[in-house]
Write a structure and sequence with these properties.
Elements lengths: L1 H4 L8 H25 L10 H9 L8 H13 L1 H6 L4 H15 L3 H26 L12 H6 L11 H8 L13 E3 L8 E7 L9 H11 L3 E7 L15 H11 L5 E4 L16 H6 L23 H27 L2 E7 L14 H7 L4 E7 L10 E7 L4 H6 L32 H20 L3 E3 L5 H14 L16
Parallel strand pairs: 1-8, 2-3, 2-4, 4-5
Antiparallel strand pairs: 5-7, 6-7
Helix pairs in contact: 2-3, 10-16
């Protein structure tokens, strides 16, 4: 079988041919994703993806040799993870992943590799049985090839598996001393009216009545000015990219470290933290479901970095969600140290204490011990949400936060009975439609920040900062211009885009 797996017929200039094929496969996959977005995230489009790949492998009849099979499988292992990681859409990643697996399962090469793996496992069992009947010193194997390395693989301690011990130690950390309270920073003051810099992280697409618009509206009424950065890939793929290795993140972190951001609203994606993953469909609903059952849990309260036995795709998705949470936590910490206000939004802690929540993670629990940090639990239906949607709102230096929020609730709001668990008739997850905040909720969040900014400005608790570098001013100006536009063709996008 090992001999049969060797590819003997190679194309001329094999390295060039390999590079061209992999590039074409990646480009075709990206073009499919663009079509998927343009067509309203119709999951049935995934049925056409294998055909697009097959054309590149040889032809519509599927006549391609062993080299194409081997190259396609290697592309799926080496290149495809990077391609789908750029989608920023967990469902699209899953569809592409499934399409790849379904196509590879048809390859004779894949069948042969499975049989070889099974025989290797049987051989290992047979060797153990013989050793039991004929005791002798242990066989000492080398690591000359991949088969011996697999057979003699030792258990290597991994930090990933020691996370529970790490978290228990981390929860013992407490405040020894508190940072000195800082005044609210002013970005610029060209006239008698100050300009405050406000960051809205994971803002979602710009809309006419979103948080951005309401911040400007409330600020005008309070006779102050605000410069709002609505940072999200829905607004700009470059300036809105908050990936930890992005230019935006490095510039943003510099603004926090230098104490230039007056206020922040953050709504990091909750997709990998969602308690809905822990709620199975009703058995009758599951039997009759036309669409696949939802994604499984990836975390628990004791293993917030990830459960055991996750797939590579799930680990990538988990890693991104963890990064977003830790980035939010870092910006909260810098806000406490350098001055500023902060509102962090995420689903309320679940009733089941075994389910992971950002609000019970050890770093957040430490922040919550600070006297100027308070977690509020509010249900968004009071501000126009179609479901109850209990929401956690972590407020930093906002002593009148609850009063400001409830002063802007809908007086005659009726508690809804609709739930957002499972899939709707269109096959989309019901939670997807609730990713954007209701307009009245946007107005309340923005109003709470402006109320406090106005109060602190009026009572002289703001400070001018050393002028930033021209390069930093230019980046902020460009980011505000690119991310502040309301585009007619803008759509809400799933997963990594919030309110």
């Amino acid at each position: 079988m090992q001999t049969d797996l060797l590819v003997t017929e190679l194309p001329p200039e094999v390295n060039t041919a390999s590079k061209e094929l992999r590039t074409a496969l990646s480009q075709t996959t990206k073009e499919w994703f663009q079509l998927f977005c343009d067509e309203g995230y119709d999951e049935r489009l995934a049925e056409s993806l294998p055909d697009r790949w097959i054309v590149l492998l040889g032809g519509p009849e599927g006549h391609y040799d062993a080299w194409f099979e081997a190259e396609f499988m290697q592309w799926g292992q080496d290149d495809l993870p990077d391609v789908i990681a750029d989608f920023l859409d967990g469902r699209a990643e899953s569809l592409v992943d499934d399409a790849f697996c379904e196509l590879v399962a048809l390859f004779p090469r894949f069948d042969l590799m499975q049989k070889r793996t099974l025989l290797l496992a049987k051989l290992n069992c047979l060797e153990n049985e013989i050793a039991g009947h004929f005791p002798h010193r242990s066989i000492r194997r080398g690591t000359a090839n991949i088969f011996e390395r697999a057979t003699t693989a030792a258990h290597v301690p991994a930090r990933f598996e020691e996370q529970q011990i790490f978290f228990r130690q981390l929860r013992e950390v407490a405040w020894f001393d508190l940072p000195n309270e800082q005044k609210i920073p002013i970005w610029a003051q060209p006239s008698s009216t100050p300009i405050f810099l406000i960051a809205h992280l994971f803002s979602g697409r710009r809309r006419t009545e979103d948080v951005h618009a309401n911040l400007i509206r409330w600020a005008a009424k309070a006779n102050i000015q605000v410069l709002v950065l609505s940072l999200d890939t829905a607004n700009s793929e470059t300036f809105g990219n908050l990936h930890i290795m992005s230019t935006t993140w490095s510039q943003l972190l510099l603004l926090y470290k230098e104490g230039r951001i007056a206020a922040t609203i953050a709504g990091a994606p909750c997709e990998t933290w969602s308690a809905a993953r822990h709620r199975p469909l009703d058995p009758v609903q599951a039997d009759q479901a036309e669409w696949p059952i939802g994604p499984r849990p990836l975390r628990s309260a004791e293993r917030i970095f990830g459960l055991a036995g996750l797939t590579l795709r799930e680990l990538r998705q988990l890693s991104q969600g963890t990064h977003f949470y830790l980035q939010t936590t870092i910006t909260i910490a810098w806000t406490i140290c350098t001055g500023g206000l902060y509102i962090s939004e995420h689903p309320a802690p679940p009733e089941d204490g075994q389910i992971a929540s950002v609000w019970t993670a050890p770093w957040t629990m430490l922040l919550r011990q600070h006297p100027e940090v308070e977690l509020h639990i509010m249900s968004q239906w009071k501000w126009g949400c179609e479901t109850v949607k209990p929401t956690g709102l972590l407020a930093v230096r906002l002593p009148r936060f609850a009063r400001s929020m409830y002063s802007r609730q809908i007086p005659d709001a009726i508690r809804p009975t609709k739930v957002a668990i499972g899939r709707g008739e269109d096959g989309q997850f019901k939670t997807s439609a609730l990713k954007e905040y209701p307009s009245q909720f946007c107005a309340a969040l923005a109003g709470a920040l402006i109320d406090e900014l106005h109060s602190r400005h009026r009572t002289g608790r703001c400070r001018e900062t050393v002028p930033p570098t021209p390069e930093l001013v230019q980046w902020v100006t460009e980011a505000e211009a690119f991310c502040g536009q309301i585009r007619v063709d803008s759509k809400w996008l799933p997963d990594y885009q919030g309110g």
